Amino acid sequence: MHTQPKDFKDWYSNQGEALLSVLKHRFDEHMFRHQGHSWPTIQKRLEDQPEKLWSLQQMEDTGGEPDMVGLDSETGEILFFDCSPESPKGRRSVCYDREGLESRKSYPPENSAQDMAQAMGVSLLTEAQYRYLQQFGPLDAKTSSWLDTQQSVRKLGGALFGDYRYGRVFIYHNGAQSYYSARGFRAALLV
């Protein structure tokens, strides 16, 4: 469960409007990501679910530059993804999950991608979502991002990550306990 502040109503009244302004500006600046959608509809949905604004603020504060990128095909919910050119700076140098973190014999990182995502109230992008996001890119040309990994791969000790090199998107694998200064994670939020 994510950790919203106890004084959420105060946070919302003090920072909610400022965040909506940032999101609207980004929406207007990057219409190619959401053609056919209008800001008033998105703003209404956010105002009806203010707890989602808190999660978007966490994405923003860690360098994700969240933006609306479409609708979920199954639920019709609005999709917000991190659209920063590189993996968000405030979420790098993390291993994949708690199990990977605890398996480190030496020099463990401070956190894991899955733990951070849960605390923020978001999820890691799936491989399909990452490939979809890259159509607006290229993104992660100098960094890489952990991706939500199927249990069958995770049971074998691995985890997936993606990046953009040589004019194309690559999806790779690594041990879930590994971490690098240029690898973080991109978040998805349904509203």
At the third CATH level, what is the topology name of the largest domain? Answer: Mannose-Binding Protein A, Chain A
Mean of pLDDT:
92
The helix-strand sequence is HHHEEHHEHEHEEEE
Instruction: Give the structural class.
Output: alpha+beta
Q: Please work out how many helical segments DSSP would assign.
A: 7
Name the assembly state: single chain
Largest sheet: 4 strands, antiparallel
Pfam families: DUF4256
Organism: Cyclobacterium jeungdonense
Protein name: DUF4256 domain-containing protein
Structural features, described:
The protein has 191 residues and is α+β, with helices and mostly antiparallel strands. The chain folds into two domains: 8-82, no CATH class; 89-186, Mannose-Binding Protein A, Chain A (Roll). Helices cover 36% and strands 21% of the residues. It is built from seven helices and eight strands; from the N terminus they run H-H-H-E-E-H-H-E-H-E-H-E-E-E-E. The chain has helices at 8-29, 39-48, 50-61, 98-102, 113-120, 127-134, 151-154; strands at 66-71, 78-82, 123-124, 144-147, 158-165, 168-175, 183-185, 187-190. The strands form two sheets. A four-stranded antiparallel sheet has the order 1-2-8-3. The protein has a four-stranded mixed sheet with strand order 6-5-4-7, with helices on one face. A hairpin with a 2-residue loop joins strand 5 and strand 6 (168-175). The longest helix is centred in the first third of the chain and has 22 residues, at 8-29. It is globular, with a radius of gyration of 17 Å.
